[in-house]
Amino acid sequence: MSLFALDPRLERDSTLLMKLGLCQLRLMRDSRWPWLLLVPQRPGIAEIFDLTPLDQTMLTFETSITAKALKQATGCHKINVGALGNQVSQFHFHVIAREQGDPAWPGPVWGYGEATPWTDSARTILTERLLEAI
After folding, report:
1. With the C-alpha atoms ordered 99, 101, 102, 107, is the resulting torsion angle positive or negative?
2. Phi, psi at residue 96, to the nearest 5°?
3. CATH class of segment(s) 8-133
């Protein structure tokens, strides 16, 4: 039986905030958008249909509570969710707070410009708001 291991690129590009029932909740290291990842802690998962039906239900629940908490924590205009996996095949779900007039609005955030690191204080404030909302 293989063990869950986080893809090195996801590890490099994000910070662990907490572990939920199924997923790791991670914050992307790009302050242009409050951008979270949900990564199911299951080995060998590349697609949503690779998850068991129960895990799919848990993912839906964890996505919903994460998206609601992100909206509450940021007051954003729109929450975007999605799974692409073109560059990292390990299944992960993006939950992104979008604001009219943000750097990529209304287009997608993927591949837009260069990442801007979080300041320690901004990351701490967002993290505290998120964890309180969850």
Report:
1. positive
2. -125, 130
3. alpha beta
- Rounded CA-CA distance 42/59 in Å is 12
Residue 55 is inside which H or E element, if any?
A: helix 53-74
Per-residue pLDDT of the chain (134 residues; tens, 9 = 90+): 679 999 999 999 999 999 999 999 999 999 999 999 999 999 999 999 999 999 999 999 999 999 999 999 999 999 999 998 888 999 999 999 999 999 899 999 988 999 999 999 999 999 999 999 99
DSSP letter, residue 83? -
Coil vs helix vs strand at 100: coil
Return the structure tokens found at 50: 């690779």
